[in-house]
Amino acid sequence: MGQDDRVTDRYPDEPAAEPPAAYAAEPEIEPIVERAAAQGPTEDLAHDPAEMRAHYRAEGLDASSLAAVPMEQFARWFEQAAQAAVAGMIYEPNAMVVSTADADGLLSSRTVLMKGYDAQGFVFYTNYESRKARDLAVNPHISLLFPWHPMARQVIVTGTAHRTGREETTAYFRTRPHGSRLGAWASAQSSVIASRAELDTAYEQLSARYPEGSEVPVPPNWGGFRVTPRTVEFWQGRENRLHDRLRYVAEPDGAWRVERLSP
């Protein structure tokens, strides 16, 4: 796994994204994933992927219960995921797997933290010289995956990504903890470095230049991307692997079509 695959866009003390208040949440749900009973000695199965499985027990997902637009439906599910995080079921519900491809079609994926969403799509921030940003500069197509395993849910997004404006980037940057702002300067994300000491030294120098309480400017090569969705799939785990998969598809006139996919 490469460096970019392991990097998230904040430090542990940075708060997770909050859902827009305009979207109403569905009723709170209970954990619905339980481990399958092991057949035979547990130690024999501990390292065998073929024997690792869980049973999904959940209410179904039907098109009649969906919101009219995907971002509103996402807000409902995200609110429930955020509640599950408060209850200790999920760690960082705004964490998503971001997949990009370069000009030759070579794919790469990494976990990134979503930092906002609205009717126009999803927003995350990164170094514009990172691998994902370089990919998006030549190929704006992107996929997002929110893996809410304890709820037996996934949200899979495909679309295109474009840079946010500097005003929006600056407004977000000022909300980051002081250490995270320094980290954005210290890390030349995705580049090869000689050692951890090199990174720590850069951070210490920045800490001396911008002590706690001082204004840290936004790095010129750092900013946001807004992902405009083309499709948004809501995946709900069900018994016997007969999962519910409902996908919104954008129409040319701006409307959304909902289609059911076979599991």
TrEMBL record:
**For the region Disordered, what residue ranges are annotated?**
1-42
Task: List the biased-composition ranges (Basic and acidic residues).
Answer: 1-13
EC main group: oxidoreductase
- Where would I find the Pyridoxamine 5'-phosphate oxidase N-terminal domain in this sequence? 85-206
Identify the residues that bind substrate: 115, 172, 176, 180, 241-243
Annotated SUPFAM superfamilies: FMN-binding split barrel (SSF50475)
Q: Where is the Pyridoxine 5'-phosphate oxidase dimerisation C-terminal domain?
A: 222-263
Going by the UniProt record, its keywords in alphabetical order are:
Flavoprotein, FMN, Oxidoreductase, Pyridoxine biosynthesis
Origin, by domain of life? Bacteria
Q: Does the keyword Flavoprotein apply?
A: yes
Name the coenzymes or cofactors required.
FMN
List the pathway annotation. Cofactor metabolism; pyridoxal 5'-phosphate salvage; pyridoxal 5'-phosphate from pyridoxine 5'-phosphate: step 1/1; Cofactor metabolism; pyridoxal 5'-phosphate salvage; pyridoxal 5'-phosphate from pyridoxamine 5'-phosphate: step 1/1
Please give one Pfam family short name: PNPOx_N
The UniProt record lists the keyword Flavoprotein: yes
Q: Where does FMN bind?
A: 110-115, 125-126, 131-132, 154, 189-190, 235, 245
Indicate the quaternary assembly: Homodimer.
| Purpose of the protein | Catalyzes the oxidation of either pyridoxine 5'-phosphate (PNP) or pyridoxamine 5'-phosphate (PMP) into pyridoxal 5'-phosphate (PLP).
Q: What family does the database annotate? A: Belongs to the pyridoxamine 5'-phosphate oxidase family.
Q: What is this protein called?
A: Pyridoxine/pyridoxamine 5'-phosphate oxidase
Q: Taxonomic lineage of this organism? A: Bacteria, Bacillati, Actinomycetota, Actinomycetes, Kitasatosporales
